[in-house]
Amino acid sequence: WVESTLGEGSTFHFTVQVQKILGSGEFQMPYFSVPALRGRRVLIVDDIEINRRILRHYVELWGMLPVETASSQEALGWVRRGDAFDLALLDYQMPELDGVNLARSLRELRSEASLPILILSSAATELPPLSGVAEAMVKPIKPSRLLEAVSKVLVQTVPAPRVEPPAPFHLPKTLGAEHPLRILVAEDNAMNRKLAKMLFEKMGYDPDFVSDGNEALEAVERQRYDVVFMDVLMPVMDGLDATRELVRRSELPGARQRPRIVGMSANAMTGDRRTAEIAGMDDYVPKPVSVDLLVAALKRCERLEG
User: How confident is the prediction for the chain on average, in pLDDT?
Assistant: First the structure.
């Protein structure tokens, strides 16, 4: 049915009947960090920005660290100078050096065991097996299909001895009582705010939320906080500018001590961490946020007087 108000707009309501998928209880969409992939560095090479953005989004959700470029030659240069990567995701068709030839060049520098390669193609048909390539897949590719391929090659190939994964981390449900803090979270994404609220509440905290840097400044002026979790990329005023302003205000004569600022960003490259430090951030937690890293960041915070 339709509800309509002249000059305001219309609302359409409808019902869709679907069948339940058998065995769906066993399927879990990998929207969060995958422990076996966490911290693995991924080289993404595609000359189309939206394709790189999609791949970056997928691998970041699984806890991987993407390094991307539109240039095959630049990617080749990174590997040639010794940059470490656990996996390469290559587009099949690119202007200066296509995915197949780039894979051949990479294979001259790294073995299949040390750098598995997956090629993604927009061709209408499946690609034949390619020498030195673990798998070639047709776009658009579902995240579950990509995760399957990524997990397969990284589980089967162990380029170097790795530290044993830590024991399962248990959420400290009494941390809020044992280590009380007044927390402000500046995050523009509604879903991320809901997830953060759920995590903090399970640990016994009751944080306040704002959606941009300007609102964060206003909140800190109104109320005393011990820590601000500051997203780096936000509209109106981003986290870096908000941090610079908080630091500037705290250095004025008679100003009270500012809260500790913990930056949050999906781009965890060293340069971005350094930029956050220069802006005045005291700590840094990469996205997707790992619970153990979040707890560690909270434990580094101290309760301010007042």
Answer: 84
